[in-house]
Amino acid sequence: MKYYFIVNGMEYKEILLKKRQLDNKGPLPSELLHNLDEWFRIELTFSSNAIEGNTLTRQETALVVEKGITVGGKSLKEHLEATNHAKAIDWIKKSSKHKISSITEKDILDIHAIILDGIDNSNSGFYRRVPVRISGSRVILPNPLKVPVLMKEFIKWLKESKKLNPIELAAEAHYRLVTIHPFIDGNGRTARLLMNWILLMQGYPIAIIKKKDRLAYINSLEKAQLGGSKNDYLDLIYIAVNSSLDIYLEALTGKKTKAISEKKEFKIGQLAKKVNESISTIRFWTKCGLLDVSQVTSSGYQLYDSSMIKRIEKIKELKTKRYTLEEIKNKLHLI
User: Fold this and answer.
1) Mean of the per-residue pLDDT values for the chain?
2) Is 181 one of the annotated active-site residues of the chain?
3) Residue 183 per-residue DSSP state
């Protein structure tokens, strides 16, 4: 599988072009800027919390954050997750004039403290002191005794990283932090906020990983953490940044921008037909871990993105060479 944005560089150049177009517009009209800021504040809060299981809808999140209204049937924890996350966004925006090299461990602890304020005060702003596991994941997380050392190494890496482009740097910082998993809870939200803080520092808008991409996002992280490629994860982050730039440019110009194509998604029958395989074979390869489901619809349909077409071609090629399923997994870096 190839990097969707990085191998040939063309798509990243398109993103750079969009950013330059935005920069050349000069200061945005204050009313438009306020409206965009508020939209991104609610959208990132809703999406980031939804990825972690918060059941507040987008509209309910807006009511809680903007109006302070309590939503019936929702827990106090879910309300606090919404208000705390919005406060954390305000924090990173206020601090976005800082340089990346100035980021400290305390800054990350401060973001985390806001996230868990009133939810788990005994752990908010503190590294975990116990082993943790991610439910349903094979990823082995670092021993808690190693977390302080790993975080010092992480900050050192962040200060010295100069070779990555701004989007890669933000994505890699997110990946490294969530892989260290320094907190008992709130790791994902803190990592996504750190990523967006780095993007804001470099003049990019906030990037949102959408609720519908939750499964693809989690799978792409786990795949990389288990030794596989980061391509799927990086694709997702690039697409999120591109989408946010489009929103700003469309708001300014009133015209639809030319979007970088997102990966098309297929139902299992459509994918089977596309690659000339039976549905039962696709289902079996999915169950064995050879294929990734990008998302599950509200109706229960499993969807596969277009990268699985190339994956299937490779699986079929390896099968003709009489490799076993486990050997194919190894060849594809899926274990």
Assistant:
1) 90
2) yes
3) S
| Closest to 286 measured CA to CA, from 264, 271, 273, 298 | 271
How does pLDDT run across 65-109, given as a tens digit for each residue?
Answer: 999 999 999 999 999 999 999 999 999 999 999 999 999 999 999
Q: Round to whole Å and give the CA distance between 93 and 22.
A: 18
Write the pLDDT tens digit of every residue in 115-165: 999 999 999 999 999 999 988 789 999 999 999 999 999 999 999 988 899
Residue whose pair of structure tokens reads 């060479």 in the numeric block: 321
Average pLDDT over residues 311-326: 89
Please, what are the domains in the chain?
Answer: 10-253 (1.10.3290.10), 265-331 (1.10.1660.10)
Contact status, residue 317 vs residue 330, Cβ threshold 8 Å:
no
**How far is the C-alpha of 259 from the C-alpha of 239, rounded, in Å?**
9
Neighbours of 128 (CB within 10 A): 17
Alpha helices in 25-75 (DSSP H): 30-51, 58-62
DSSP H or E stretch at residue 266: strand 265-267
Local structure of residue 101 (DSSP, 8 states): G
Is residue 298 pLDDT above 70, yes or no? no
Phi and psi at 206, nearest 5°, equal -60, 135
The active-site residue out of 79, 174, 181, 333 is: 181
Tokens describing residue 305: 């993105």
Q: What does the alpha-carbon distance between residue 213 and residue 51 come to, in Å, rounded to a whole number?
A: 9
Tokens coding 91? 């924090």
pTM (2 d.p.) = 0.78
Could you give the CA distance from residue 278 to residue 95 in angstroms, rounded to a whole number? Answer: 54
Q: Give the up-direction half-sphere exposure of residue 127: CA atoms within 13 A in the CB hemisphere.
A: 20
Distances 38 to 31, 34, 45 between C-alpha atoms, Å: 11, 6, 11
Q: Count of residues for the chain?
A: 335
Residue 293 CB burial class (10 angstroms; 0-12, 13-18, ≥19):
middle
Buried b (16+ CB within 10 A) or exposed e, 138-149: eeebbebeebee
Residue pair 71/56 in contact by the 8 Å Cβ criterion: yes
